[in-house]
Amino acid sequence: SEMELKRRRGIEVTGHQDVFGSMDQIIDLCEEFEGLTPVLNFPHYQSRTRGSLNTTSDFVELINQFATYSPAGIYASFSNVEFTPEGNEKWYTPLKKGELRFERLAEALADIKPEITLISASPLLEHDAVYMRTLTERVLSKKAAKQIKEDKKRQESATEEA
């Protein structure tokens, strides 16, 4: 029997001002053509927007925009990046070299839990893929520990009131 594969067509935000592929252009195409999915390339977006991804909520907002057009889940790539003041990407850099903070992305993912496939595009491909997983697990552990602590406090105050 034949394996049935579902093809997904994706279109990516580009990392240069003079190249087609701004966020608005990508979304317009996805609205116009059924089955076209935006691909979230974090370093390209960071370059093109001159460093707009700084806080956890910046990442949440961006991911939510993509989720609207990605019913089968978001496909994304991450690396750090250097870009010109004009907003043109120069090159990808390892996670620890640059201002794009993977920890903020990990916090956003832990907060909203989107269906996402996240690929390492770093020059230190395997090393940074493992590092991304480690940072994500660390964020999830901290979030779980905080939740347990809050639950325990709630139980104690409920017991005291009874």
How would you characterize this protein structure?
Helix content is 48%, strand content 18%. It contains five helices and six strands, in the order βαβααβββαβα. The protein has helices spanning 23-32, 42-48, 56-68, 102-112, 125-161, and strands at residues 9-12, 36-41, 74-78, 80-83, 89-93, 116-120. The strands form two sheets. Strands 1-2-3-6 form a four-stranded parallel β-sheet. The radius of gyration is 19 Å and the shape is globular. 27% of the residues are buried.
Topology:
Layout: E1 9-12, H1 23-32, E2 36-41, H2 42-48, H3 56-68, E3 74-78, E4 80-83, E5 89-93, H4 102-112, E6 116-120, H5 125-161
Parallel strand pairs: 1-2, 2-3, 3-6
Antiparallel strand pairs: 4-5
Q: Which geometry do the CA atoms define?
A: globular
**Residue windows where pLDDT falls under 50 for at least 5 positions:** none
Structural class: alpha/beta
Would you list the SSEs in sequence order as H and E? Answer: EHEHHEEEHEH
The number of helical segments is 5
Rg over C-alpha atoms, rounded to the nearest angstrom? 19 Å
Number of strands: 6
> Helical content, roughly?
40-55%
Q: What amount of the residues lies in strands? A: 15-25%
Main β-sheet, in a few words? 4 strands, parallel
Strand order of the largest sheet: 1-2-3-6
Distance between the termini: 64 Å
Question: What does the average pLDDT come to?
Answer: 92
